[in-house]
């Protein structure tokens, strides 16, 4: 099938919607939405988020070296988007969004109490990449709301109800039904 070039862009389907929680030097909780991120190592379990130097979260990450990642459900699209359009320099984003900053048990960083999944992370290293710095954090623990767990005790994506970001159209999208079982669906093609 013929393909048309759209040029070099920050295009990946889907982008996760990750809320990075940090404390400022004044101890005030802050959060920003990041779509440039994802899992980057299995051992140690690690996640990477890329942040521009002009962001308050950048300064907080450099200073504190610890952070959380909260994963919002579709109930909180408006609030998650707000975390990306307001600055923590002059705004208490948690108060303005009507959300609860909860101090992490393991790291000196807040997470969003209303969001169903939280990763508690300690900074391992940074990588300078153009206008962004990638912050790679070791995941020390993952906390999941009991209401978002399945009968098997594992996180259930249908109960978590995360959403994704389309950077080309600048829109948020929900997820649909299960398509197939991973590490199984392709077995019939294996010879």
TrEMBL record:
Keyword Flavoprotein: yes
Keywords per UniProt: Flavoprotein
Domain Flavin reductase like residue range list: 10-165
Cofactor: FMN
Molecular function, one GO term: FMN binding
Database matches in Gene3D superfamilies: Electron Transport, Fmn-binding Protein, Chain A (2.30.110.10)
Family the entry assigns: Belongs to the flavoredoxin family.
Record protein name field: Flavin reductase family protein
Species annotation: Methanoculleus formosensis
């Amino acid at each position: 099938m013929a393909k048309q070039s759209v040029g070099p862009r920050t295009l990946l389907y889907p982008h996760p919607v990750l809320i990075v929680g940090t404390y400022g030097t004044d101890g005030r909780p802050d959060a920003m939405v990041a779509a440039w991120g994802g899992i980057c190592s299995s051992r140690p379990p690690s996640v990477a988020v890329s942040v521009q130097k002009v962001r308050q979260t950048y300064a907080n990450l450099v200073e504190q070296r610890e952070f959380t990642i909260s994963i919002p459900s579709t109930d909180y699209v408006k609030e998650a988007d707000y975390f990306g359009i307001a600055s923590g320099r002059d705004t208490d984003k948690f108060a303005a969004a009507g959300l609860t900053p909860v101090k992490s048990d393991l790291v000196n960083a807040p997470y969003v109490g209303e969001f169903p999944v939280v990763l508690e992370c300690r900074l391992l290293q940074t990588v300078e990449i153009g206008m962004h710095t990638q912050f790679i954090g070791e995941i020390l623990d993952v906390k999941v709301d009991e209401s978002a767990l399945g009968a098997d005790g594992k996180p259930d994506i249908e109960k978590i109800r995360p959403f994704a970001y389309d950077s080309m159209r600048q829109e948020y999208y929900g997820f649909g039904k299960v398509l197939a079982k991973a590490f199984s669906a392709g077995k019939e093609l294996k010879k």
